[in-house]
Automatic annotation (TrEMBL):
Subcellular location: Cell membrane
Protein name: Odorant receptor
Record's GO cellular component terms: plasma membrane
Organism, scientific name: Conogethes pinicolalis
Name of the gene encoding the protein in the UniProt record: OR10
Entry-linked Pfam families: 7tm_6 (PF02949)
Family, similarity comment: Belongs to the insect chemoreceptor superfamily. Heteromeric odorant receptor channel (TC 1.A.69) family.
InterPro entries linked: 7tm6_olfct_rcpt (IPR004117)
Keyword Glycoprotein: no
């Protein structure tokens, strides 16, 4: 990961190491103990307490909405964490494929396409960081500011732990608040690193289809080396250039299969929990809430994030399918009619992309 396209995932790996999700050859026993302890404390126990709270929540619409809104997000996050831990081998394989020679630009135009994708990812990462931290500010930091400025009661932001009695909650309020505060930071960092991984892996595949499309579209007899004076030499070189495109396409299919193996269960969990969360959030408009202003604004913000979590993978998946279908037109835009039979026979591969990829 010192160079190549996989370099753009350095921040993802940095956060995974901080969260105890990414152990490599350099990780010692202490890191493994840290990883187990950290994830047990902030994933296992955190989710268990959240589940108990959800089971003991009073059956009131406003209370149920406020206590369950982030619960399903936590369940989706568990699936994403499992994706990073269990699919690490496949993620590294995808990174290695992104760094291979076939996935780099071969000329000025294709190199520009690849570099443009790197800048797009950087901007996407920054946008995610800004949005997620604004959400953290709204959920935790803003109530703290109101507590010191207006002297309002500082309530637990995510859940109230209704399985505890009032006396216990008051006694350990500071510890519970700190636990939720740090837990929310962990959730935000996990969401940033996993959501960007899923979407950028799809973006990389779309970019490679654009590169391959550009190669095939510009695969013309007139673009060959003019020093090859004989037609036979040009035909041989033409077939060789097509074989390079075929190798690129074969690697791209393998890369897409790896993406599907890595992200399928996490995306399924994300779509399912996001749908439930959106339905719960919509219930806020059925009944006037006592803390209407803050809760309504928080609901709008949270619904927006859930919509983005559903929309972006779906959008990039549609773009990926569309890009694979364009390969057929790009292949037959080349000078294939007067070519040798071996060239035409090799060109039949392109019809397979009509089946779709993801």
């Amino acid at each position: 990961m010192e160079s190549g396209q996989s370099r753009v995932f350095k921040y993802n790996i940095f956060f995974w190491k901080c969260l105890g999700l990414w152990s490599d050859e350099t990780s010692g026993y202490y890191y493994k103990y840290y990883s187990v302890a950290f994830q047990t404390f902030y994933s296992g126990i955190f989710t268990f307490l959240y589940t108990l709270n959800f089971m003991f929540t009073p059956f009131d619409l406003e209370i149920v909405i406020s206590q369950s809104m982030f619960y399903f997000t936590q369940l989706a996050q568990i699936a994403k964490i499992a994706m990073i831990v269990l699919k690490r081998k496949y993620i590294l394989r995808a990174f290695n494929m992104l760094d291979c020679i076939e996935f780099q630009g071969v000329d000025i135009k294709t190199t520009e396409i690849v570099n443009k994708n790197k800048y797009s990812y950087t901007n996407y990462w920054k946008a995610c960081c800004v949005y997620y931290h604004i959400s953290c500010f709204s959920i935790i930091i803003l109530p703290i500011i109101k507590y010191f400025v207006r002297r309002t009661e500082l309530e637990l932001s995510l859940c109230q732990y209704y399985f505890l009695n009032d006396q216990t909650r008051v006694k350990y309020h500071g510890g519970l608040f700190f636990y939720q505060f740090t837990g929310l930071v962990v959730i935000i960092l996990s969401n940033i690193s996993t959501d960007t991984l899923i979407n950028v892996l799809l973006m990389m595949a779309i970019t490679q289809f654009r590169v391959l499309n550009c190669k095939l579209t510009n695969l013309r007899f007139s673009s060959l080396d003019e020093e090859l004076v004989t037609t036979v030499d040009k035909e041989v070189l033409y077939v060789e250039k097509l074989k390079i495109c075929l190798v690129h396409y074969d690697l791209l299919l393998k890369y897409c299969n790896i993406i599907q193996d890595v992200t399928s269960y996490a995306i399924f969990a994300q779509f399912g929990t996001a749908a439930v969360t959106l339905c719960i959030s919509m219930c806020t408009f059925l009944k006037p809430l006592t803390n209407n202003d803050f809760m309504t604004s928080l609901t709008y913000e949270y619904m927006t994030s859930m919509l983005l979590e559903v929309y972006l993978p779906a959008y990039y998946g549609a773009e990926l399918t569309n890009g694979s279908e364009k390969i057929v037109m790009a292949a037959y835009s080349s000078d294939w009619i007067p070519r040798w039979e071996s060239f035409k026979r090799s060109l039949l591969w392109s019809w397979s992309v009509r089946k779709g990829l993801l």
